[in-house]
Write a structure and sequence with these properties.
Largest sheet of chain A: 5 strands, mixed
Oligomer: homodimer
Protein name (chains A, B): Peptidyl-tRNA hydrolase
CATH class of chain A: Alpha Beta
Number of helices of chain A: 4
Radius of gyration of chain A: 13 Å
Function (chains A, B): The natural substrate for this enzyme may be peptidyl-tRNAs which drop off the ribosome during protein synthesis.
Enzyme class (chains A, B): hydrolase
Catalytic activity (chains A, B): an N-acyl-L-alpha-aminoacyl-tRNA + H2O = an N-acyl-L-amino acid + a tRNA + H(+)
Largest interface: A-B, 27 and 27 residues
Keywords (chains A, B): Cytoplasm, Hydrolase
Number of domains of chain A: 1
Structural class of chain A: alpha+beta
């Protein structure tokens, strides 16, 4: 099982900012996940992969794809206190779920 | 309220690796947090700050400090499948908790 977190590479986030947005997305999708799946994922070491995308449209398309596949997912918008304009879409998490189900949504993206 | 995630800046983690370790730490400390505190933190937008430290000894010292203060915290060791040696300590999350309580533990560190 794994969780894929897709973050935008086109908005110049610093390393710490990127990490915080990825953590927001990860936790939010986790909260959208059923208890049984959570337990299994954590039991296997809560595997996470961080992937990159350019542009918010990609994130919305992937979120729709995840919805249609019935996978937990969460899109993050930045509050905009620092670095970014308020409401900027920064990241999307898909899963945790079985690896192949996650790959059907995010399998074409490169590692961040 | 906030959660501070302290990540090592001395082990050459790539951006994606760093983000994944920060997300592991964030989720693990969150799981160590009581329901009431979780709810309040999420209601306020689950504020996270990512800070840097050099060396695992700093992470262990801060974790002890958090324990003594009764704050939720979690240290992450990497499984070592990529980039790092197995068992390498990579990150520590402290909180969520009130800002001033978190600052008493991590207030001296710089933003990542």
């Amino acid at each position: 099982m794994k969780q894929a977190i897709v973050a935008r590479a086109d908005i110049g986030m610093g390393q710490g900012k990127l990490a915080a947005q990825v953590a927001h997305a990860s936790l939010s999708a986790y909260e959208d996940t059923d208890t049984q799946t959570r337990k299994r994922w954590k039991g296997e070491g809560q595997k996470k992969v961080v992937l990159k995308a350019n542009g918010e449209s990609t994130l919305f398309e992937l979120a729709e794809k995840a919805d249609r596949a019935g996978l937990p997912n969460a899109i993050i918008r930045d509050a905009g206190h620092t670095q970014l304009d308020p409401g900027t879409v920064t990241a999307l998490a898909v899963g945790p779920a079985e690896d192949d189900l996650v790959d059907r949504v995010t399998g074409d993206l490169s590692l961040y």
